Amino acid sequence: METYLVNEFHRQTAARRAPAYQHLRRTLQHAIENGELTPGQALPGERELAKLLDLSRVTVRNAISGLVGDGLLVQRQGAGTFVAERIVKSFSKLTSFTDDLRARGLDPRSTFLERGVGEVTPDEAMALNLSPGAQVVRYYRLRIAGDMALALERTVVPQSVLADPSLVENSLYETFSKLGLRPARALQRLRAIAFDAEQARLMNLPEGSPGLFIERRTFLEDGRVVEYTRSFYRGDAYDFVAELQTE
């Protein structure tokens, strides 16, 4: 790996004029993209990289900081800097954000940006099969693992299903389970997006960063729609997979 980093850094330096930290940032990014640095692998320390490439530690720190901000690297207090591990989410199994992250040994949490009760909008009424004037519970949450914001979620639930918004402390699906209302199936659609200025600010990303938009309608066994969620996931942290079979 050290030989690769040295050769790639020299290639970057020869290819264009730019500050040294940008050359190192591109070098490390290429190493990740080409599999020279693999998910979960530790990077050499700042001092080691500085000595290897004849750079100052400030230059190395700036390059690493940029890649941490992009979600390609993660820093763990007292342990060092590691290549970020992408989260693989299956489209063939109905799971929650909390389920997905706990299965990977991560500690998910939510910051509530908004929550309350209000009258259903026409779009929400159509998605939830509700009559005009019905009351719904709304949540707007920032979903986080460790120190990284992974997604923004806007969720609407019929108040006839969930009477009090405060019942959800972190996981909506855990609350459903406590109420005996665990969802049985869901319909989802996905498309690529670019984060707007407000979304990027909340996610601590540059405006225009790539993301994935997922719209989900979730059903109980009896066919009732209990959830309408629009999620905005950061594109550099997730891989979505689905198993396909012939008939």
Q: How does this model look, in words?
A:
Keywords: DNA-binding, Transcription, Transcription regulation. Residues 18-86 form the HTH gntR-type domain. This is GntR family transcriptional regulator. It is a single chain. The chain starts with a helix and ends in a 6-residue tail after the last strand. It is of the alpha+beta class and 247 residues long. The model has no long low-confidence stretch (mean pLDDT 88). The protein has helices spanning 2-15, 20-33, 46-53, 57-69, 97-102, 122-128, 172-178, 197-203; strands at residues 73-76, 80-83, 87-90, 108-119, 135-145, 148-158, 185-194, 210-219, 225-234, 238-241. A 6-stranded antiparallel sheet has the order 4-5-6-9-8-7.
Concise synopsis of the structure shown:
Keywords: DNA-binding, Transcription, Transcription regulation. With 247 residues, the protein is an alpha+beta fold.
Task: Work out the number of β strands.
Answer: 10
Question: What is the molecular shape?
Answer: elongated
- The main sheet orders its strands as 4-5-6-9-8-7
State Rg. Answer: 22 Å
- Helix fraction bin: 25-40%
> What is the string of helix and strand elements?
HHHHEEEHEHEEHEHEEE
Organism: Lysobacter niastensis
InterPro entries: Bact_HTH_transcr_reg, Chorismate_lyase_/UTRA_dom_sf, Tscrpt_reg_HTH_GntR, UTRA, WH-like_DNA-bd_sf, WH_DNA-bd_sf
Domain HTH gntR-type: 18-86
Protein name: GntR family transcriptional regulator
